[in-house]
Amino acid sequence: MGGYSYDELGAIFAMQGFAGISLFSVLLLMALGLAIIFGQMGVINMAHGEFMAAGAYTTYLISSLTETYIPAFMPYYFVFSIAAAFLVAGTLGYLAEFILIRHLYKRPLDTLLATWGLSLIMQQSYRSIFGAREVSPTLPDWLMGAYPATDMIDIPINGMFVLGLTIFTTLAVFYLMFKSSWGLRVRATTQNRVMAGAVGINTKKIDRYTFALGCGIAGMAGAAFTTIASTGPTTGTLYIVDTFMVVVFGGAASLFGTIASAFSIAQAQSILEFFISGSMAKVFTLLTLVIILMFKPEGLFASKVRR
Amino acid sequence: MSFVYEKLFGDKKGLIGFCILAALILVVFPVMLDSFRLNLVGKYLTYAFAAVSLVLLWGYGGTLSLGQGIFFGIGGYAMAMFLKLEASSPENTAIQSTPGIPDFMDWNQITELPTFWIPFHSFTLTLIAILVVPTIFAYIIGAAMFKRRVGGVYFAIITQVISVILTVLIVGQQGLTGGINGITDLRTLNGWDITSDSAKNLFYFINCFLLLAVIIASRFILTSKFGRLLLAMRDKEDRVRFSGYDVANFKIFIFCFAAMISAIGGAMFTLQVGFMSPSFVGIVPSIEMVIFAAIGGRMSLIGAVYGTLLINFGKTAFSESFPELWLFLMGGLFIAVVMFFPNGLAGLWEDYGHHITKRFGFINKFFDKSENTADSVELEGSNS
């Protein structure tokens, strides 16, 4: 790190830190969905990235429709597209659970293969519908640009917006899972399916909605994703491994662990990227995670749930 | 006599299956197909090594590795590095600014051969590396994971991440590894032209014999006491542990063995196809290897070979004529095999095969005989 003064280093860390916040937000939203699906339900959803892509494509679609038919609405469409992304991805997730996943709860390794098949189908659908080229929506003006905090530090506005969205979603998920009666039923079902059924919880319905919720949040991650990069048919696969690492590293059933690990992974990668090439940053981050997980397989914040 | 025979082939049915497979790949394909197609089949059969290794590891061991591409890649790269060094002799690379090093290194302003490339000047050391490096690597991963009782889903995810790391590393370090293009332009093996048809045909047969040998070796492992323990571990790991067995060491052994088999496949791949690239290391090829085993039947060594051939024939046929449909079909196959016939082709044969054999009296007679020696244990397709 020679050649940089302390001031410059501070600015670099701050800038890369803010750049990392966008990555953190997308990773966290993805991981929240996956933490629910994988951590709570035990389903290895390899198609999770494709649900994210579904959200991103929804945003793109709404953006181009708005641009063509009601240009006056452009400044506001993004907020609606987030909701739409949630609904579209959630509906797809609901269908996937109904058609596919519900038959496989007893065979977790097989859910991996089946959802991989699902992801292939979804990828090819995107390619057939939207073409192989990467697309990105026209962002409203207020999302563009940066706020100059000091001479050397610019804060990107889209990053802040996405961060706000992520915080809101995280709080909502936290409330839903740990404070609402629905969350109580979800957790009861996870911990002991048979007993939960015996006390009158409709476990099948709970499963379906839990899966749909996880996929819906992935869709929101997709909407957030459009602000930092363009979307292609295989975008989802780029993030799926990172997302799994976030969830596993954080401790599968711990929401707080997921947040902490998404933050550390995104920031480590973003800050390292400045000093070494992007690919080596990724190698270092992932390698560190693998080594830590070898010593601490249960993740950072292991839940005390009995299995 | 019968001892050896049961150890190596399972039972009479296993022997017949083995002979049919051997006849198919050693006689039928070479007679029916032209040199180009035969080379293609040879390429598919190298994947079958990985599929067979997954039958051992996943079907019998119950541990799903999404990282067989790692070992396939290490084997392939080791062979490719040797061939590349031979192809870039100082005479051949005289126009480079540094003669005697592979061309991609020269393009990336590397002036000296990196240390880890040096052993690959020797063919013997390369062969040793192909077998030993993946095994050691698998031992490290396996020991770290299984000793801490990490298994199942977590093992699958971690092996997958390692395959991603390796791919990113290979792509990123272009000067050392050839980057995304991989190691290409391989010409000779100890001075012998490997791009000619006769060489490719010879490699095809070597490949077949190695594959058959690997199947026999795997069968030997599965019919031994160790094979029984493997099945027992898959079904009730704790009970095996409480009986006093060191479960972790068994798992490490089978993981290392599977890694070695995959690496042999990778090395044969490089020899037959003439290049090696990171696209045979990462997530997608690793998962495809799993689906080869799954389609063939995760409990059937021979089925895995058929599964590999079938999927790859399908892939080639479809991507020539309907490239768009292929991914749909492949995705559908994944889902179908998991949901409707978890034992794959071998399972279908177990369930419905006797309907077919009944149609043909002479085969029927053949099979009747084998079924009369009923006390031989059926390992094929015995899933619980």
How would you state the average pLDDT of chain B, rounded? Answer: 84
Oligomeric state as shown: heterodimer
Helix content of chain A: over 70%
Distance between the termini of chain A: 46 Å
Output the strand order for the largest sheet of chain A.
1-2
Helix-strand category of chain B: mainly alpha
By DSSP, the count of extended strands of chain B is: 2
Q: Biggest β-sheet of chain B, characterized?
A: 2 strands, antiparallel
The residue fraction in helices of chain B comes out at over 70%
Task: Indicate the proportion of strand residues of chain B.
Answer: under 5%
Short description:
The complex is a heterodimer of chains A (307) and B (384). Chain A is mostly helical and 307 residues long.
List the helices and strands and how they pair.
The complex is a heterodimer of chains A (307) and B (384).
Chain A: H1 6-40, H2 48-69, H3 74-99, H4 108-130, E1 146-148, E2 154-156, H5 157-178, H6 181-191, H7 193-198, H8 203-225, H9 235-250, H10 255-275, H11 278-295
Antiparallel strand pairs in A: 1-2
Helix pairs in contact in A: 1-5, 1-8, 1-9, 1-10, 2-3, 2-4, 2-8, 2-9, 3-8, 5-6, 6-8, 9-10, 9-11, 10-11
Chain B: H1 2-9, H2 12-32, H3 35-60, H4 68-87, H5 103-107, H6 123-146, H7 152-172, H8 174-177, E1 188-189, E2 192-193, H9 197-223, H10 225-235, H11 237-242, H12 247-273, H13 283-296, H14 301-321, H15 323-339, H16 344-359, H17 361-372
Antiparallel strand pairs in B: 1-2
Helix pairs in contact in B: 1-9, 2-9, 3-9, 3-12, 3-13, 3-14, 4-6, 4-12, 6-12, 9-10, 9-12, 13-14, 13-16, 14-15, 16-17
How would you describe what is shown here?
The complex is a heterodimer of chains A (about 300) and B (about 375). Chain A has helices spanning about 5-40, 50-70, 75-100, 110-130, 155-180, 180-190, 195-200, 205-225, 235-250, 255-275, 280-295; strands at about 145-150, 155. By secondary structure, chain A is mainly alpha-helical. Chain A has one domain. Chain A has a two-stranded antiparallel ribbon with strand order 1-2. In chain A, strand 1 and strand 2 (about 155) form a beta hairpin. The radius of gyration of chain A is 20 Å and the shape is globular. The model of chain A has no long low-confidence stretch (mean pLDDT about 85). With about 375 residues, chain B is mostly helical. Chain B has one domain. In chain B, about 75% of the residues lie in helices and about 0% in strands. Chain B has helices at about 1-10, 10-30, 35-60, 70-85, 105, 125-145, 150-170, 175, 195-225, 225-235, 235-240, 245-275, 285-295, 300-320, 325-340, 345-360, 360-370, and strands spanning about 190, 190-195. A two-stranded antiparallel sheet of chain B has the order 1-2. In chain B, helix 3 packs across helix 14, helix 9 packs across helix 10 and helix 13 crosses helix 14 (about 300-320). Chain B is globular. The two termini of chain B are about 30 Å apart. In chain B, about 45% of the residues are buried. The model of chain B is unreliable at about 365-384 (pLDDT under 50).
